[in-house]
Amino acid sequence: MALQPFICIEGLDGVGKTTIARTLAERIGGVYYKTPPPPYDSIRQTIDLRADPRTRFCFYLSAVGYASHQIGQLLMTQPVVCDRYIYSTIAYHSAMDATLRSMVQAEHYLQADCPILLAADENERMRRVCARPRNSHDGHLETDSVFLMNVYREFRRFNLELVDTTGLDIEAVVEGVLVRVMAKLRGKSA
Question: Distance between CA atoms of 190 and 185, rounded to whole angstroms?
């Protein structure tokens, strides 16, 4: 039995990951999956605020390992669109501590058929982040422009399919993502 497509949506906070992942999953008749998944999501805020970078990294790696197994099961019957996956874990934590980059290889986890990196102009991204309810983000990381520039550089090391969401509506971004997904899937089947 062939597995269904696995698409992951990565990027900095405020680029539209959740909105695009949910819309894309609905459009292709797939499952929207967000990391960290339950039960990890219930302690995420505590880890983000109190743990040192190495402990935080181990927490997120464990959550991705758990998610990898769950996604593998879901792929038996339906496509999966994941809102953040291994690339976010590595990019954010490598920007916190470059020595963490060598602790894991993305290839050791279930591989997405099409990992997408969403980007947005910094002003638009910050406008989106600031419009969120105060408790929905870890403000000091989401607004630290130097840190986020380093995170973005880490994302670019993976050569993910880049889609810029600046000035585009949801449908235009989803169409751009779908074009890249279809091209990737055709390339894999050839």
Answer: 9
Question: Where are the domains positioned within the chain?
Answer: 6-175
Q: Among 106, 137, 110, which residue's Cα sits nearest to residue 33?
A: 110
Mean pLDDT of 9-15: 95
What's the pTM value of the predicted model, to 2 decimals? 0.91
Core vs surface per residue 117-137: b (16+ CB within 10 A) or e: bbbbeeebbbebbeeeeeeeb
What would the pLDDT profile of 64-85 be if each residue is shown by its tens digit? 999 999 999 999 999 999 999 9
Number of H helices, E strands in the chain: 8, 5
Q: Which residue has the tokens 């302690």?
A: 43
Q: For the domain covering 6-175, report its CATH number.
A: 3.40.50.300
151 vs 53: CA distance, rounded Å:
14
The answer to whether residue 187 scores a pLDDT higher than 90 is: no
Distance, CA of 174 to CA of 180 (rounded, Å): 10
